[in-house]
Amino acid sequence: MAGAPQKPLKNYDHLFANIIPYFLGEANRLPLDYPPRLLWQNNIDEADFREKIRSSPSDIFKKTLGLYLNIPFCQHRCVFCCHASHLTVHKLNDYFDALLKEIDIYAHLLNKTPFKSVYLAGGTPSLLNEGQLQELFDRLHAGLNLKKAVQFSFETGPATLNEGKIKILKKNGVDRLGLGVQSLDPAVLKINNRPQDTRQVKHIFDLARKHQIKFISLDLMMGIPGQTVDSFMNDLKTLISWKPDVLHTNRFKPMITTVFSKTGNRLSTEDEQRIKEMDLLSRPLLREHGYHATGGHQRSLDPAARNIQLSDAIQFNSSFIAIGGFANGHITGAYRYSNHGDVDEYIRSLGEGKLPIEKGYKLDTQKEIVHYLFTSLSMGKVSLRAIELLYGKSLNEYPRIIEKLKYLESRGKISLHDQFIKSNMTSLEENTTYLQYLFCDDVLEKMLQLAEAEGIPIDRPQDR
Ligand SMILES: C[S@@+](CC[C@H](N)C(=O)[O-])C[C@H]1O[C@@H](n2cnc3c(N)ncnc32)[C@H](O)[C@@H]1O
Ligand code: SF4
Hints:
With 464 residues, the protein is an alpha/beta fold.
């Protein structure tokens, strides 16, 4: 790497260690967004946003565009769940009408730009009745170009599916069905407020096979309240015997959004130990049965069955259009944004013909590169060639980033090589603390303001 001016950088490790709970509390999914979600602003310029989509700013946008559509409603709230969803199912019909309006707006803006991946999720999208499901697919296929999509996923809880709905999924191109199992142990399900019958789950799994949905992915939680190592391992063995195409073993994250945390619970050292044990025991068993790591907590029999939208987001920092409440989107080189979670606000915006964007952040190439470094280093490694291919720029064109990378290397956190950069960090907390050195100046300034507002003493930067 080319030389760069070496200015001393302020040491904010302590500050960031203090901010981590806010940082991670806001981000209920990985990879972490950059700029961090807790800095996103409320006043996105909708006219500019629409124009950026209309003019599809970059090639990356076109090659790996994803559609993420969210139905954030559930019949009950599982104690472990960190995802945003509403129990006000009586509002689903009005929500659905607004959702169709949002699809129409994007249909107009995108003018048949092809999507590479589609991901319908929730909450519980199978709460839609058969008529609504068909109407949703009709509207999507009529307005958007899904013809070249290489994957069409539908992720839901099994309790609200039936054969009629599965037939509709199949008929309309869904080729990957994600079913949340979470646990098969009646005592664990009860503690977690999750009404679910194992026979019903297996029945739905068998129906999806009967109707030849190409890939089935099952989610099993690891370390939720009431779950012992034996209970988890028994469930895992049972699910392996069903031979799903993908198995997710999701390590329980006690985010501030879970009922678990809201009611004052914390994981004890023994709980953490138990989760580690589950993880250690599950790995060889999954490998032995042909399940190999395919990103995140996914283990797949065939790499093609992995969540392609997720791997595109990690590998290519891809664009994805967000439709539905709470949904997050990314328009390469232009915006990261999220929609209103509040149902009434979501419906009201669309009723006025406005996009239901609640928050966002305007991007430029440097921010995109920092995001790419941030997520890739969180995963362990980043290729310098990949940066050049994605952004048409060499890292050497960003001396400030080079300087910060060298600083991280001097602290032993990363190693710089000719072709790649490798992370030596091992935990999310460590990544979050140290990767702040890559933040662009305006983003870092906002983080400092946030820290001040929280009463965390900071030494104001003179040299940034
Ligand atoms: C958005 S949820 C949808 C699940 C679906 N509604 C269901 O009932 O099965 C997607 C997945 O996130 C995982 N998940 C939920 N809360 C989690 C948490 N606190 N930590 C880790 N994974 C979690 C679950 O395994 C779940 O299947
Ligand atoms: S796990 Fe599924 S059903 Fe349970 S609260 Fe979360 S999204 Fe709703």
